[in-house]
Amino acid sequence: MELIRSISGIRGIIGVNFNDTIASEYAKSFSSLQPQGPLLLGRDTRKKGLEIITKIKKDLISLGRDVYDCDIAPTPIIQFLAKKLETSGAIMITASHNPEEWNGMKFIDCDGCFISQEKNEDLLYNIDNRIEPIKFNNNAKSRNTTNSISLFIDALLKLNFINLEQIKRKKFKVVVDTVNGANYHLLPYFLKKLGCDVVEIFCNNSGSFDRNPEPLAENLNLLCKKVTKEKADLGLACDPDGDRLSIVDNLGSAIGEENTLVLCADSYYNETNCKTPLITNLSSSMCLDYIASKHNVPILRSAIGEANVIELMKKENAHFGGEGNGGVILKDIHLGRDSLVATIMILNMLAKNNISLDKVMSKIPKYYMIKEKTGASNFDISKFYNHLSKTHPGSKKDSTDGLKLSWNDKWLHIRTSNTEPVIRIIAESSKLKTTQLLISDTINRIKNYSIEN
């Protein structure tokens, strides 16, 4: 099995195709592309993370590169500090939502954004051609920067459209599930700073993921039960590196990670009257089209992947965007998905409206999205896209990323994953039965095509 390498970074399975030595080679390649100055390192709680970051730190210092070590911190913190501390870039050791046995790396430029497609290709070229890393004439050293995390919290608390006192007066009761990931301490701490009564589940740094690490609704059963038992106002769940947020309402119902971005978008445009475009990706809910129309702002969609969304945000000078996987991006803080940004925006919305989350959701149009995946194909996927396209002659076709077929009231998107060796199949419509048929029909077509080809 080969490493998964894409614009989202690299990911592999520890002891199979990824270890500290391999990670260090990629780190040295990245270092060679960056200007002089310190590189910032961070990691989630995965069990080999410390071993990997220690090896990278040692090898970068041997090249004359100063290192800032933030140790365990969510990806959004590392992105924020990469720019705030005027580093030459950053590396986050994480495999995001992949299972516990995986690990990987995300590469962040000096502006706090993930590296471009072009720079990513240069990084991989250095690796594949065994290009010697650049050495710097510098008596390099390592500096612990964990205390700098407070700079991020301060920035969140100073957002001008957030009413802190209103949030604190509500004294929200919140159940938090960080899947024992990078947000294990920071998210509960941040909520307490906002005056919340916090109940914690899966909030330690063991690196043992006690539920499926992807914060999809079907993986949050324990959180749902805990919210009900504790009579909490809401539940919050994230993935291991803390860039995605999923929400459970006051009735103990998981509202779906797609609705995190929907609610935050509605709240942002309500509070700021901003008229810059809402930027998202091709697979995010069409409920965002409703939100954009409601606030009279354009909505633009990129290929899947945070880096692609951010590239479009930069191009359009957009202030708000994100992905429907629970990833909210607020330019005022940094151009990156951020569960902590989403948290304060959700609490601000609930405090201002003074109604429960289930009541808020009752005012949002209901759409039914299903996300499925199947093993990577043994056939030419691009030819299957052509085949599938011909079976739906009345649809609008978009080949920006895989194939998306759209109708007035439904859509289907099929593509190869950037982060797993799978084909992703996503569909949405206003009727559950319609969505189910779109998914089942597509899966059957894949199976039949695979047999015939």
Could you characterize what this model shows?
It contains 15 helices and 21 strands. The longest helix is centred in the C-terminal third of the chain and has 21 residues, at 432-452. The mean pLDDT is 96. The chain has 4 domains: 4-149, Alpha-D-Glucose-1,6-Bisphosphate, Chain A, domain 3 (3-Layer(aba) Sandwich), CATH 3.40.120; 167-248, Alpha-D-Glucose-1,6-Bisphosphate, Chain A, domain 3 (3-Layer(aba) Sandwich), CATH 3.40.120; 258-338 and 345-362, Alpha-D-Glucose-1,6-Bisphosphate, Chain A, domain 3, CATH 3.40.120; 368-452, Alpha-D-phosphohexomutase, C-terminal domain (TATA-Binding Protein, 2-Layer Sandwich). The chain is globular and about 60 Å long. The protein has helices spanning 20-33, 49-62, 75-84, 117-128, 149-157, 164-170, 186-193, 221-230, 258-272, 287-294, 306-316, 339-353, 357-362, 381-391, 432-452, and strands at 4-6, 9-13, 39-43, 67-72, 89-93, 102-108, 142-144, 173-177, 197-201, 234-238, 245-248, 278-281, 299-302, 320-323, 327-330, 334-337, 368-375, 396-398, 403-406, 410-416, 422-429. Helix 9 packs parallel to helix 10 (287-294). Strand 18 (396-398) and strand 19 (403-406) form a beta hairpin. It is of the alpha/beta class. It has a 7-stranded mixed beta sheet, sandwiched between helices.
